[in-house]
């Protein structure tokens, strides 16, 4: 969980560096960090902690791309999350997709990552490859995709498209990390207040 969210966070930082200078783009979504802590005196010795998000919690994208979500399509935060997904998809040549974007306003948490079966630069996501296929089929570009010059996924020449180069920064390459705690043994997240 920490590995996936913090990897997605690194992509979001690069996206922000490219999007923020674009005139009229405005605020950019941020994926908050998540930390794994050890609690040796507890029955379950590990827990994850992150900043508490206060306000209306909204799902801007869902793991199953077939679900209709008007907040995603009609809100500024939702459109910028869709643009972030498109940006990551394009920068990784369709090999990786950040999905399940949700949070309060522009602060996001509990994200997922889908990769092709072979992974991407040694990283394998925690979501099915079908999420990439669904995104490619269902994504509708918006004004923020246009502002960043992202190519439409509806193009009939998509498979013939040349790989895009990353001009700003190198995309994150994460080493393979094994989870210490089985998912069944985890207890619900503990939250830290941002105060």
TrEMBL record:
Stretch list, region Disordered: 156-195
What range(s) does the Alpha-type protein kinase domain occupy?
1-153
> Where does it reside?
Basolateral cell membrane
A molecular function annotated in GO for this UniProt entry is: protein serine/threonine kinase activity
Q: Where are the transmembrane segments?
A: none
Q: What is its EC number?
A: 2.7.11.1
What GO cellular component is one of the record's annotations?
Answer: basolateral plasma membrane
**What Pfam families does this protein's entry cite?**
Alpha_kinase
Catalytic activity, reaction form: L-threonyl-[protein] + ATP = O-phospho-L-threonyl-[protein] + ADP + H(+); L-seryl-[protein] + ATP = O-phospho-L-seryl-[protein] + ADP + H(+)
Kindly give the InterPro entries that the UniProt entry links to this protein. Answer: a-kinase_dom, Kinase-like_dom_sf
**What UniProt keywords apply to this chain's record, in alphabetical order?**
Cell membrane, Disulfide bond, Immunoglobulin domain, Kinase, Membrane, Repeat, Serine/threonine-protein kinase, Transferase
Q: Spans of biased composition, class Basic and acidic residues?
A: 184-195
Q: What class of enzyme is it?
A: transferase
Main location per the UniProt record: membrane
Q: Hey, which family's this protein in?
A: Belongs to the protein kinase superfamily. Alpha-type protein kinase family. ALPK subfamily.
| Biological role stated in the UniProt entry | Protein kinase that recognizes phosphorylation sites in which the surrounding peptides have an alpha-helical conformation. Regulates cardiac development and cardiomyocyte differentiation by negatively regulating Wnt/beta-catenin signaling.
Name under which the protein is recorded: Alpha-protein kinase 2
From what organism does this protein derive? Answer: Penelope pileata
Which gene does this sequence derive from? Answer: Alpk2
């Amino acid at each position: 969980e920490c590995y996936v969210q913090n990897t997605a966070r690194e992509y979001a930082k690069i996206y922000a560096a490219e999007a923020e200078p674009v005139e009229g783009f405005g605020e950019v979504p941020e994926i908050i960090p998540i930390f794994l802590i050890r609690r040796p005196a507890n029955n379950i010795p590990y827990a994850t902690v992150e900043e508490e998000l206060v306000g209306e919690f909204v799902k801007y994208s869902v793991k199953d791309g077939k679900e209709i979500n008007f907040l995603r399509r009609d809100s500024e935060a939702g459109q910028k999350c869709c643009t972030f997904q498109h940006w990551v998809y394009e920068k990784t040549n369709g090999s990786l997709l950040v999905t399940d974007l949700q949070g309060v306003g522009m602060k996001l948490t509990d994200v997922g990552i889908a990769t092709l079966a072979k992974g991407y630069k040694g990283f394998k996501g925690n979501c099915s490859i079908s999420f990439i296929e669904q995104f490619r089929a269902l994504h509708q570009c918006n004004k923020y995709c246009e502002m960043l010059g992202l190519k439409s996924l509806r193009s009939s020449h998509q498979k013939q498209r040349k790989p895009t180069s990353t001009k700003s920064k190198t995309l994150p390459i994460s080493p393979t990390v094994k989870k210490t705690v089985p998912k069944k043994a985890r207890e619900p997240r503990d939250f830290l207040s941002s105060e």
